Amino acid sequence: MLNRKVAFVDLSKEKVIVQDIPKELRRKHLGGRGLNWYYIYNNVTPDVEPFDPENLLVIGAGFLTGLPTLGTGRTQISTKGPLTRGVGDANMGGAFGPELRYAGFDHLVVKGKAEEPVYLFVNNGSVEIRKAKHLWGLNTFETQKALKEELGDERVESLVIGKAGENRVYFANVMNNIKNAGGRGGTGAVMGSKNLKAIAARGTMDMQIYDVDKFIEYALQMNQQVLSTKWAKTLSRLGTPLLYDVSYTTGFIGTMNWQYNTPGKEGEPLEAEYLQNYIVKHTACMGCSVHCRHRVKIEKGEYAGVITEGPEYTMMGTFGTLVGCYDWDFVIKGNDECNKWGIDNLSLGA
Q1: 165: which residues sit within 8 A by CB, 6+ positions away?
Q2: Which residues pair with residue 181 across a beta bridge?
Q3: CB neighbour class for 11 (10 Å; exposed up to 12, middle 13-18, buried from 19)
Q4: pLDDT tier at 188 (50, 70, 90 boundaries)?
Q5: Are residues 197 and 163 in contact, defined by beta-carbon separation less than 8 angstroms?
Q6: pLDDT at residue 1 above 80?
Q7: Three-state secondary-structure class, residue 113
Q8: Residue 45's pLDDT is what?
Q9: Distance (Å, rounded) from C-alpha 182 to C-alpha 189?
Q10: CA–CA separation, 54 vs 70, rounded Å?
Q11: Full DSSP string of 14-69
Q12: Whose CA is closest to 242, among 290, 179, 307, 180?
């Protein structure tokens, strides 16, 4: 696992430098976030603005990312964010982080600004800068589909921005698959400011484990321990919307633009149990057996035909209680649009 590398990408100069990551550096800065911020702290000075070419966008995979155990499907995205001009940091689920490691890399450090839209293709030890003018203007779903077709491989995993990122909306997300979002800090806006539409990864490189048998034994033990908990069992069935019931009955959820702290009985239609009427299947991030993600479909009404994933707990507040709407159809549709545009639903609703 320690043979994964870091790629320094300069979009202005159209140059890529691949380097090993020293073991002593790994020991000091464990995980995706640790090394991400090491690179930013040592290369971005306080006077650099979020949309300056000198700002860094760093993609990182954690030390255990891509291994067959719980919580290993994560990706860390770090930058100096536009929303606060400080830390812009997002941790997202899905499958991009694992694919990045299978392609030979733990970190991508991106600076500069391309003259025209580009995307990066990471594949088995190499990083290519490719033209993406034909992708500019597509939503996040269309972009990922187009990349799979262009690269001729359905197993390509991509980090992409939508129109929000292209237009530098301060709370634009970086997205992967349907709803995996690097949100809150404006990571998508920084990516857009660099004319970087997407980062696609596909790899087939082995990941070596020192003691495979011992690792698998421990991973199975942890998996059984987690799945035996009441929390995991409930999360598998209801997902994060289970938090809604707790929040609104105890007075911890913003209602009518925070005029109230609970919708009371009026909010009952948004209870997690009612989401069951829309669920067509459960899915999971790579390596996770909890499968807390919902694939949902609206069968009838104004938004009939919408098929998407989610929504998560936050969406129930921002497109639900905060605006006095207790209609699952509206919340699901709003969630789908946010994902397509690549915009942070919590920041948008607030």
Answers
A1: 172, 173, 174, 188, 189, 191, 192, 342
A2: 175
A3: buried
A4: very high
A5: no
A6: no
A7: coil
A8: 95
A9: 11
A10: 36
A11: TEEEEEE--HHHHHHS-HHHHHHHHHHHTT--TT--TTSTTS-EEEE--TTTTSSS
A12: 290
Cα of 336 vs its chain's centroid, Å: 15
Rounded to the nearest 10°, the torsion over CA 6, 12, 13, 17 is 0
Q: Per the structure block, which two tokens stand in for 51?
A: 């949309």
> Hey, is 71 helix, strand or coil?
coil
Pair of tokens at residue 50: 């979020």
Domains of the chain listed by start with CATH number: 5-202 (3.60.9.10), 229-349 (1.10.569.10)
Report pTM.
0.95
Burial group, residue 256, by CB count within 10 angstroms (0-12, 13-18, 19+) = exposed
pLDDT, position 349? 84
How many Å apart are CA 19 and CA 15, to the nearest integer?
A: 13
**23-53 b/e (C-beta count within 10 Å ≥ 16 → b):** eeebeebebbbbbbbbbbeeebeeebebbee
d(CA 180, CA 182): 7
Task: Provide the pLDDT confidence category of residue 78 given band limits of 50, 70 and 90.
Answer: very high
Token pair belonging to 263:
């919708």
